[in-house]
Structure formats: structure tokens, C-alpha cells
Specification:
Length: about 475
């Protein structure tokens, strides 16, 4: 019976020096009995590498630029919303979540996120509302009251009703008067604000003027307000508005938490202007001693509220130079009637800097607002703490990646030889680098290292060098 010769591979001991392992150059694959298909001769890579900036580096730079642009656009979007009245939150909320929703759906196409998103179906919500009749304190305007009273910036509160417990909310809808304002044309504002006028030997400038149609302290139809503001550079801007009293439907949400009450009023809709025509007013309001009805009480109440509102705004302010050259200025309010800048909170006056500026970008909207109206508040630092951190980390990682590409070249195809390069044993350096041992690669083969097969061999790498024995050798 013929005995078949077996071919064995001898593991080469690792080289401890910088010299590459010594291989018999005369032994080739054909002489060892191996066909050309059993191994592939891989030429050593060229030491000169070219970087194609249109691929990986371009993708890194493009994505980083896109992320920075997205952060800037988000900042601009929130900056535009700052100070605007909160009405409906549907479009604001959904537009803010559009990007995150898009990323979420893209991830769901590649990863199984069902287990992550499922718990979101459970959330904490408020209890179902219950209709309850309660008593709300209010002023009785059909009773004698003082015309002048103390004013404050807080609404009249009331104690929590019985059965409220630790927390409860009450939503109250009611009819009430409110201002509605429209912008004045520039020529109307200029008419109300003389450029200059002579008072004695001094030239003064009107910077604020608010007048009503009627002089009666109770009957008012509308008020026209014009102003000329000055910034720190001395530049002036003219604007104005006309405000009328309207019947409105308002809503107040009264919240009690741990015996602490909070009232949040808002205007739901503007209905019709309040009819304060003198004929109508005196015809419906009773004479002294006569009984009043609901219509007369409502009309008188609205007119009284309107008169109080206009009293806070009516008056004039003039700007008078302190010296003949006009370098130093101070502010002289009108004497009868005088506008109280401290209570209406529409403008800020700085005698030292010589400025007269509005406290709101839109004075007409500020006049229409009522106490505790919600507006958008944008905290810049909260947004940029997240974006700046993410962009800085991404930029650092991108810089490291670009440095590696410049040093080692771009990523190649994942061929077998590329895997060998990345997982080679130290004794393969001479073959991979192509700078040692000349053409030793022509008589070299690779063997997959198995831990424990040869205790004397260094099998720390995935692939090690192996040399085939000649045919006929023992």
C-alpha cells in the first residue's frame, strides 16, 4: 500500500532583532509544490500616498459645517421668537421637533428602537376637569367708590375654596374691557411731535405726547400716542399708536398649590369697541337717585376702566438742552397732566446718558398685554452649552481623523491583505513594509495562529509566517 507523504508547515520563530527573518530565496511556490492559486503574492505598498480630499476628508468637513449651520439657524429661530406672545404652540413645538423626528425615523430604518420608544406611551397627565360653581370676588361698580385708589402690579387674590386639597386649578371665562392698538402713520406721529418749539429763549423738543379725543375724565373713545426716542448715539426715531377700548372675552387660570395661589389671565378674543359716545353714555346711565340696570353698570364700569388706563398714559414729555450748545440735556415732564413713566413701564429715561428708549420692541403689543401674559423666553446659554460641546468634540475627532488620513492614507477596500496588515504579528513587518528581506515574500506563506498549538511559537498575532518544507524532506 502506497504511503502518501504529508506536507507540514514549520512555524518560524519570531525574530527578536530588527533584521527580518531569513528565508531561502531559491525556494519558490512552484518548487514547494504549491499551485499559484494557493497563495497570492502581494506587492508592498508604495511609500508615497495621495489624499483625495473629495472623499473622507470632504465628508468630515461637510458634516461638521452642516452641524454648525444647523446650530446657528436654531439660534436665529429662537431669537426671533424671543419676547413674542405665546398663542398657539402647535407649529412652534412641531417645527422645533422636526429635526429630531427626522433623525429618529432614519435611525428606525437601521436599528430596532421599538423597545426604547415603547415606554413613552405611558405618561403623567392632569386629571379630567370637573365643572363646579364657585364665587369669584370682584368690585361692585354700582356702589360708591373713590375715584383715586392705590394701584399695584398684582391681581386681587382669593383663598382656595373648600375641597381643593393640596392642589387644584380653576379656569374662569368672563367679559372684560381691554385695549386694542394700531400703528400710527408717520405723518400723524410727526404732527403730534413738533420738531422744536420756543419756550422763552430755550428750544425744546417734544419726545412723548398722548392725548384723548374728549376732555371728560370718564368718557373716552380712543387715545393717540406718539413718541420720539433717542439712543446712546443721539439718533432719534419717531413712531406712534392709537388705542381704543374693546369688549373682550378673557380667561383666568387660578392655581392653588400648597395654599399658594397664582392667577394667569389672558385675552381669548376681541369682540367690538366699547360704545362710549357721550349721548349713549349719558342716556343709559341713570341720574342720581335712580336705580341702575345691568347695561348701565356695565357701560359705566367699562368707561371707568378705560379712563383709568388712559390716565396712566396721557401727558407729554419734552427734551430741553441744559446749555446753549445742547451738549448736556435733561428731561422736563409736562405739568398738566403728567405722564407717569414709573407706572406704565413703556419707556426708559436716562438723564445722564440722554437716552429715551422703549422697553419693548413693539409698543402697541405692550399696551395690549395684560398682567401675566405668557411670552417666549429664550436662554441663549442653555442652547449653546449643548451645541458648543457637541461641535467642539466633533471637531476634535474630525481633526484626529484627518491627521490619521494625512499620515496613513485613506481607507482601502477590506481585502484579505488589508486585514492581514491590521492584524499582523510583529514578524510580518518586514513583509508588509516591503523594505526588508528583499523578495522574501516570494517564498513566504501565512498561517492562521491557534493558541496552544505550539507553545514555543509566538502566536500573539492573528497571522504568523510559515515556511513549507520541500517535497521528500522528513
Amino acid at each position: 500500500m502506497d504511503r502518501h507523504k504529508e506536507e507540514h508547515d514549520d512555524l518560524l520563530p519570531p525574530s527578536g532583532s530588527n533584521d527580518g527573518p531569513s528565508f531561502p530565496v531559491s525556494v519558490t511556490w512552484s518548487e514547494a509544490g504549491y499551485s499559484s492559486s494557493s497563495a497570492t503574492l502581494v506587492q508592498s505598498p508604495s511609500t508615497t500616498r495621495r489624499i483625495r480630499l473629495g472623499r473622507t476628508p470632504g465628508v468630515i468637513a461637510g458634516l461638521l459645517f452642516g452641524a454648525a449651520l444647523t446650530a446657528v439657524l436654531h439660534h436665529v429661530y429662537l431669537f426671533i421668537l424671543r419676547g413674542r406672545t405665546v398663542s398657539g404652540q402647535f407649529w412652534i413645538k412641531n417645527s422645533s421637533n422636526a429635526l429630531s423626528t427626522l433623525v429618529q425615523w432614519l435611525c428606525m430604518g437601521h436599528f430596532a428602537l421599538v423597545s426604547i420608544l415603547a415606554p413613552n406611551s405611558l405618561e403623567v397627565g392632569s386629571a379630567s376637569p370637573k365643572n363646579t360653581t364657585i364665587s369669584v370676588p370682584t368690585a361692585l361698580f354700582n356702589k360708591p367708590i373713590n375715584r383715586i385708589g392705590c394701584s399695584s402690579e398684582t391681581l386681587m387674590g382669593w383663598n382656595a375654596p373648600a375641597g381643593c386639597g393640596t392642589a387644584c386649578n380653576y379656569t374662569i371665562q368672563y367679559s372684560a374691557p381691554a385695549l386694542r392698538c394700531t400703528e400710527l402713520a408717520i405723518d400723524e406721529a410727526n404732527t403730534m411731535l413738533p420738531v422744536s418749539q420756543e419756550i422763552g429763549n430755550i428750544t425744546v423738543y417734544t419726545v412723548y405726547n398722548a392725548t384723548t379725543l374728549y376732555t371728560d375724565p370718564v368718557v373716552t373713545e380712543y387715545m393717540s400716542i406718539a413718541w420720539r426716542t433717542y439712543d446712546t448715539n443721539g439718533k432719534s426715531t419717531i413712531a406712534g399708536t392709537r388705542c381704543s377700548l374693546y369688549n373682550t372675552t378673557q380667561q383666568s387660570v387660578v392655581s392653588f398649590v400648597n395654599n399658594t395661589g397664582m392667577i394667569s389671565p389672558s385675552i381669548i378674543s376681541y369682540n367690538s369697541p366699547v360704545n362710549t359716545d357721550p349721548t349713549t353714555f349719558f342716556w343709559k346711565c341713570p341720574d342720581p337717585g335712580e336705580s341702575s340696570n345691568a347695561t348701565s353698570v356695565s357701560l359705566y364700569t367699562y368707561a371707568l376702566v378705560g379712563s383709568w388706563l388712559f390716565d396712566q398714559l396721557e401727558g407729554a414729555i419734552i427734551r430741553e438742552p441744559a446749555e446753549s450748545d445742547g451738549t448736556l440735556v435733561y428731561w422736563l415732564p409736562g405739568t398738566d397732566p403728567s405722564v407717569n413713566l414709573a407706572t406704565n413701564n413703556l419707556f426708559s429715561l436716562n438723564e445722564t446718558a440722554g437716552t429715551f428708549i422703549p422697553n419693548s420692541q413693539n409698543v402697541s403689543s405692550a399696551l395690549e398685554q395684560i398682567l401675566d401674559q405668557l411670552v417666549w423666553v429664550y436662554h441663549v446659554q442653555r442652547l449653546w452649552i449643548i451645541y458648543a460641546t457637541a461641535l467642539a468634540v466633533t471637531a476634535a475627532c474630525g481633526a484626529v481623523g484627518l491627521a490619521c488620513i494625512l499620515k496613513n492614507g485613506e481607507d482601502r477596500d477590506l481585502t484579505f491583505w488589508d486585514i492581514v496588515r491590521a492584524t499582523r504579528n510583529s514578524e510580518l513587518d518586514a513583509i508588509v513594509d516591503g523594505e526588508k528581506c528583499g523578495d522574501a515574500g516570494e517564498s513566504t506563506m501565512l498561517q492562521y495562529a491557534v493558541q496552544g498549538r505550539d507553545l514555543e511559537a509566538n502566536t500573539s498575532g492573528v497571522f504568523i509566517l510559515a515556511r513549507p518544507r520541500r517535497k521528500g524532506s522528513n
